[in-house]
Amino acid sequence: MATIRDVAKLAGVGIGTVSRTISGKGSVSEDKRRRVEDAIRKLSFRPSSIAQSLSTKELGIVGLLLPSIGGAYYELILKIAEDELRAQGKYFVVATGSGMAQEEEGFNFLLARDCDGMLIFSGEISERRLIELESRFPSVAIMNRVVPTIEEKCFAADHIEGGRLAARTLLEAGHRDIAVITGPMHRLDARQRHEGFIEELAAAGVRLAEDLIVEGDYTTLGGQRCCDILLERHRSFSAIFCANAAMAVPTLSRLFQRGIHVPSDMAVIGYDELDFCAVLAPPLTTVDTAVVEIVRNACRYLLKTCYGIELEVQRQFQPRVIRRESV
Known about the structure:
about 15% strand, single chain, six-stranded mixed beta sheet, Rossmann fold, 434 Repressor (Amino-terminal Domain), alpha/beta
């Protein structure tokens, strides 16, 4: 396998000239550049990314920490991150972790990979710990939450407002007896959207009955289990708020299997806008939390911070309701 020394020898130039030609940084005469490029072709030389990083101090790799890589929501995050980074010639490496300990393990794994920057989608690491981690590795962009003192590195929708919007949508449709399938309540985003939902109902003089609240886990199977629990309690209610889209899918399916028609017998509203929401039967009304723009702008922030690429970065994202036939 040819080395950079072999290229320099064949081209009749120094190693530094070869390095500057490959990186595109620094001054190289046209004649020497042509000789180096000819030598690279003749020797089928492939520059080592590690060798290049020694001179540029960059690997061109960003770390991405996610709770999971399963399900349409995280698949969307992966796709948007790849599109944004690849457009600038950068790549990412992924670590996953569910729970505070595993998330920290994932962070340390990415840290050991010498990533230039890190995208963090954390549901469970405490604010204090995130601030400590940021002090160890400042080149981070935090998605899905806002952490005090490092707000400029955070990209998130207002989940409390998202919960309020979901409640307002059901109230405006005339619903008062409402059931809720929450997200896992040890996660901040789940608590926030539930808090907003309850606050909006209370402002309208509506109290959410405790036995009409079931804690889910953001998964499809979890949504099915929670819908079964609600139906088996034989309580009267006319609407269900599912705290994410993945749990709304089996809810619609279970209601259909029980002969409960949506929306004439039961309204269903989900949370997070994913491609399949529009093609369900019936199409799902949902709260769009702008996850595409959140991930896109978090990536652009790191591209700007780590590589000096001038890109416009937005930090304000407002949730909105996308109304379809399920309500």
